Amino acid sequence: MTISIAHNLARHTRRFTIALALLTLALAQFGPLSSKSFAASDDDSELLKAAQEFSNSALAKQKNCITCHTIGENGGTVGPILNQISNRRTEEWLRKWFSDPNSLKPGTKMPNFGFSPAELDDLIKHLTKMKRTINSEEILAANSDPIVAGGELFKAYDCLGCHRIGDEGRFVGPNLTWVGMRKSQEWEATWLADPPAYKPGTFMPNFHLKPNEIEALTAFLHSQQGQANDKARKWESMTSFILDARPRERGRLVAERVACWSCHGEGLTGGIKNPNAKPDELVPNISSASLDLAEEVLRGIILNGKAAEKLDPAGAEPPFSCPSWKKALTDSELDDLLAYLESIVPESELWEFE
Ligand code: HEC
Ligand code: HEC
Ligand code: HEC
What we know:
Blueprint: H1 2-30, H2 44-55, H3 58-63, E1 70-71, E2 74-75, H4 91-99, H5 101-104, H6 117-127, H7 136-142, H8 146-156, E3 164-165, E4 168-169, H9 179-182, H10 185-193, H11 195-198, H12 211-222, H13 229-243, H14 247-258, H15 261-264, H16 289-292, H17 295-304, H18 331-343, H19 347-351
Antiparallel strand pairs: 1-2, 3-4
The structure holds heme C (3 copies).
């Protein structure tokens, strides 16, 4: 009995992933996500030309890159927007990525196409041209409000190529609609200065930002305290309507909007560093929380938050506790979130009941 439940859950989750991929693809071609992905400024036309040339190349067409990526003004939403790829990745990184995506991001949906050396050179030739000249001093000088300047830099660096705010952007990095509530500005600054140094193996690139850019960007990030929540909600309800989503599938969209994984890690299986927090100085694995905790306890933690317990009572306060999500969730969204948490309990945990 329990075994068949476990199997059903896993099957539905997988089916939903496929449905969501198809849906986001459809929305990208016809819907609100097809809006321009560039900051409206300076040298868009050069960038757009390089991107369009790549999109029209024989190789990109043959491998159908745009089913998953937006290149130029069109394409899918499964992967990052590629227009400014060379603002964030080196040639060396790109060669490694195309030779074996899975070695840089285990479990990635990006296929290994097995490019020949000549194809790889051709690809690199196109991608290295897809780079924006960003004049950050000008942006900073033109905007005295750091939140506004940070918002302009956020656009200029195309952070929405991977992240989402409201109903804009992509799904590769955590949704930033609520980032200002869950992270401090100091932490964001540490993170932006060098993500892979902070979390080895992370897919977030190092943009080699200057301190004054980081200051503005974090002011902008910190201002994101759920103002775009209604837009995100609208997008979700449209998605749910089209998918005729069940509670756990709606709950998954809710979990992605508030980005539980930005602390608890991918699949909620264990996340970022949390010095002096019990038991292992990491934000904990909560993938089996719905099995380990009584439902009322779980509801309480999500609504009211939970302070991290200190490992060394005399030591410093751990930087992260579980925030209270009361402001972000309606009653029915909380129900959906619980259904989602139930659906991600690893099969190995459920098998124990055999
Ligand atoms: C089936 C979907 C899919 C296809 C087809 C696909 N990609 Fe990707 N690609 C992804 C995903 C998803 C990622 C991001 C990694 C992740 O989240 O797993 C990615 C990442 C990338 C990245 C790194 C992006 C960044 O911002 O660092 C590059 C470059 C890239 N793909 C290029 C291509 C090219 C060129 C093609 C066609 C030859 C292609 N991809 C085809 C799904 C796809
Ligand atoms: C190639 C995709 C990609 C791009 C482009 C990207 N990020 Fe990220 N970002 C990620 C991923 C993936 C994570 C999650 C890191 C992890 O836990 O491994 C992340 C995490 C973050 C976080 C912390 C997590 C949170 O939400 O609480 C912040 C803040 C952030 N990114 C800001 C930015 C900013 C600002 C830019 C533009 C300058 C940017 N990112 C561009 C992929 C990206
Ligand atoms: C700012 C980082 C952060 C975010 C975002 C976050 N959490 Fe937490 N969460 C924590 C920390 C730290 C703990 C550990 C508290 C402790 O020591 O008991 C925790 C603990 C928990 C626990 C208790 C685990 C246990 O076994 O006692 C649950 C359940 C939980 N989080 C659920 C969630 C859900 C659901 C979300 C998204 C709605 C979320 N968290 C988002 C940081 C975060």
